[in-house]
């Protein structure tokens, strides 16, 4: 195992499902899709070392160069990195096919973050890594957020989530609110008007 993937090992990378995997056979079975794999050498090396869809024993996050609306103060939480998987919802080439009508050919889905947004390699931008926020409608360029310039740069951004209890100044405050009788009456009156 090379040093470039030591960060993944330290974060507890492991296969999502314990199944036998033969990357060469997998690529052969998906020959047309495999020919479309991004050229990024770091990503191809990753697939050679981690040929099954992977998850982590630790909670893993990263902060990219741009933040999506779902990020927590710029942090995204990594759920999975896709490769071969018997479950088509987590299989690299099945996902390529699933999103073929929503994503142009230059975007290759390689992972998922919390909230169901997807991590893509952009083959038109030097195989840079982006998060695709699937909730943003309209122009695709408005829903892509640049994370890193390459897959290995992306791997370097991954870190274990730290519970930061020292600085909660930006954390949402839980408020207990009990409306007054006057407020309850006004709300009831408003709702009554809306239901007419």
Task: Compose a concise summary of this entry.
With 196 residues, the protein is of the alpha+beta class. The chain has seven helices and nine strands.
Which terms summarize this structure?
196 residues, alpha+beta, SMI1/KNR4-like, seven-stranded antiparallel beta sheet, two-stranded antiparallel sheet, elongated
Structural overview:
The chain is α+β, with helices and mostly antiparallel strands. It has one domain (5-160): 3-Layer(aba) Sandwich (SMI1/KNR4-like), CATH 3.40.1580.10. 27% of the residues lie in helices and 21% in strands. It has helices spanning 6-10, 23-29, 31-34, 41-49, 92-98, 151-157, 181-194; strands at 13-15, 54-56, 60-63, 75-81, 107-113, 118-122, 128-132, 144-148, 159-160. Strands 8-7-6-5-4-3-9 form a seven-stranded antiparallel sheet. The chain has a two-stranded antiparallel ribbon with strand order 1-2. A hairpin with a 4-residue loop joins strand 5 and strand 6 (118-122). The longest helix is centred in the last third of the chain and has 14 residues, at 181-194. It starts with 5 loop residues before the first helix and ends with a helix. Mean pLDDT is 81; it is low at 171-176.
Helix content: 25-40%
The amount of beta strand, in percent, is 15-25%
What Rg, in angstroms, do the CA atoms define?
A: 21 Å
Query: What kind of sheet is the major sheet?
Result: 7 strands, antiparallel
CATH topology (fold) name: SMI1/KNR4-like
CATH architecture type:
3-Layer(aba) Sandwich
Tally of DSSP helical segments = 7
Q: How many beta-strand runs?
A: 9
Protein name: SMI1 / KNR4 family protein
Domain Knr4/Smi1-like: 42-156
InterPro entries: Knr4/Smi1-like_dom, Knr4/Smi1-like_sf
